[in-house]
Amino acid sequence: MSDPVEVSWFAALCDDDYQFLGVPEPARLSSWNHCREIALTADRGGFDNILLPSGYALGIDSVAFAAGLAPLLQQMQMLLAVRMGEMWLPQLARQLATIDHMVRGRLTINIISSDLPGQQLESGSRYRRTAEWMTVLRQLLDGEAVDFSGEFVELAIEPPRIRMVRGSCPPMYFGGFSEAAKDTAAAHADVFLTWPDTVVAVGETVADMTARAARVDRAGRRLRYGLRTHVIVRETEAQAMDAAARLVSRLDDDLGDQIRSRSLDAESAGVARQATLREEADDDGFAEANLWTGIGRARSGAGAAIVGDPDQVVAKLLAYRDVGVEAFILSGYPHREECELVAHHVLPNLPHAPLDP
Fold first, then answer.
1. CATH number, domain at 99?
2. N or C: at which end does the chain have fewer Cβ atoms within 10 angstroms?
């Protein structure tokens, strides 16, 4: 159990917080006050990083939120989600460098490649745009001048005066399951994120992406791997099962379908895999031991949870680590309350530390 992993929490900036899945409560809608309390709870609890997701129709702005949160964090990194194509690249680079100074050099970046609000591109074009944006953004954050002429980016500019605290671009986390997404990640990402799946399937994803990254001609190239999953942990397995059942006890399937369809990535290959995982699960919704797919009934993205007592949850996370996962982005419902439970029951028994730049 010597190799540490990065353990992050989720700040729910996208109106995704419930006591009963699918039953919204005004007090749990995304707001500065509510999401700040989730993040500060994770910081106090000892998490290594906090994902600040990006949406448009739902929730609040991730970049603005990050700037407000940065001075409040004591030790935790921030994993700021930014949608490629949404902001002018020099402006985005300057914003990220400024926020990095505010959080004292602890900024990491989650690259989002879904459609921009009000605009649709076919998958291949969208990922070509993402690749160009990642290339130029990395150059600017590395403090390099840019002279780039591509399909989506035309830019010749010096880097902004303000530089990242560490002097170079921080780790870029990136997820996607189409062929175009995987090839883009293999060439340009630092951490490839996958959604919940069986341990064997996650290991196969790691092997596939490692082979793709090995074909990229870039000095020092090493792709690392992260898993984005929900968690339900209680003192006993029976209590965890009861908590899972309670979470979906008021969920109407038609409402669940509506919730899943709201996301900009509702038709993606990753979402399709989560649906298949649910279909292949047993009658109680388990795809394998301690991997419960019930959450996916009302979620378009990560659609499964690790459910069990503290020993079972830790063992499951370590099983994923053993097939190559080095970072976990965890969440649970309600987010602040489950954060406290994971901090109490799981973190003390899991070797963890932020990923090195």
1. 3.20.20.30
2. N
